[in-house]
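User: I'm curious what two different proteins look like when written out as structure tokens. Can you demonstrate?

Assistant: Sure. I'll show them one after the other, since each token string lines up with its own sequence. Here's the first protein:
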Amino acid sequence: MQKKNPVKILEMIEKAVNSNLYLESEMDPFKVLIFTVLSQRTRDEQTEKVAKKLFEKYSDAESLSNADEEELAELIKGVGFYKEKAKRIKEISKELMEKWNGEVPQNIEDLLKLKGVGRKTANCVLIYAFGKDAIAVDVHVHRISNRIGIVKTKSPEETEKELMKIFPKKMWKKINSLLVTFGKKICKPNKPLCKECPLSKAGICDYFINMQEQNKGR
């Protein structure tokens, strides 16, 4: 078993998904924030459809804060837990208007004060809206980091802390987009495509190594 080099592993993943996916240009902070809230427990493709409809009608905190909650719920019905999310995004918008003049704060401490905003959402805003160095850990990032074996953690929060230790800061903001895409294309939750994975071929994925050992024992 080869010793793992996290930086090299991320470079191999970047090459495998054949992209420079993480965004160099900054997106609208409000839209990034609301999109990320909508995306929780919902496929990205579906979130994109719903978000497009939502932002065509409510493009900023002021308009969304004044929206009718039932009408809002109907508009975002395509995402999971849409009634709860309608209430949440309206509350977030109101809070932005009351405390931040409609603007989205640019530091994690203030973002986390917004009701319903956790670390993943806050870090997504920092990365994709403000281009800051942060690591957004969702289910893909947590699962793949542990599956490969670069961390041994039980929660996304623990994973974020460990990844911050092992990767140089300049690489932080690309981790989310690369691992999410890698998780969709190759390292799938239930049936990972190990034969197509460069990490398996290089013998540096714990999951693949363990599967080989189990097969030998049969």
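Here's a second, unrelated protein for contrast:
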Amino acid sequence: MKSICIIPARGGSKGVLNKNIIDIYGKPLIYFSIRSAIESNLFDKVIVTTDSEDIANVCISYGAEVPFIRPSYLAKDNSLIKDVITHCLKYVEKEYKTYPYVCLKQPTTPLVSKEDIIKSFELLIDKKADMVISVSETLYNVNWIGFVEEDLSMKNFKLFSNSKICGTQRQDFKKTYILNGGIYFAKWDMFYNKKEYYKQNTYAYIMPKERSIDIDTEFDIYLLKFILNRKNFCISHGGI
């Protein structure tokens, strides 16, 4: 194989306590990301970088590698993901070897499937790209989004400040997309050298909204469980 997968999962969480290992129908949230990465059969290693012994033990039990505990200075609220990934890659380079390709997979986007991972890698190869990033269509087109001032004034609301938008039909706008945080698949040096992700030869892998849910609040967990119920999710029968 030619690639490794890195899953960042720090212990601290503001919105949801112990978010990365919160119980979802008998499995911790991070289980979903570990499983889809392993089942894609694309990776020599699926590595979790975490500052938490509890998270480390959980991840190891589901087949991921946790070869080190992340230092505390890389597990703060303002720690940059680029620094976290570079730290991990330097460890991999020193202890193992370098790999042509690296996949960053966020555990808070649990519905990313093994097929999504495989297709994003295929896109990376087909386009001869430096990086592929997963996105999903926005719920609302950004042309209809604006600011409401503290006094409730709408003077900076785009719909009213741009006369070209007034009276325009929704379907006449180009589709807009948002990063869903699920997949960043790239050449090794893109992460190692902390290159700008969007100024390089980067392409979008478009995912459906129902698999792009990003867990940040209790409501997101409720929504995740609702989606899994609709999919007749059952751990004992192989998951989603």
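A detail about the second structure: The beta strands are 3-8, 23-24, 27-28, 43-49, 101-105, 131-137, 177-187, 202-207.
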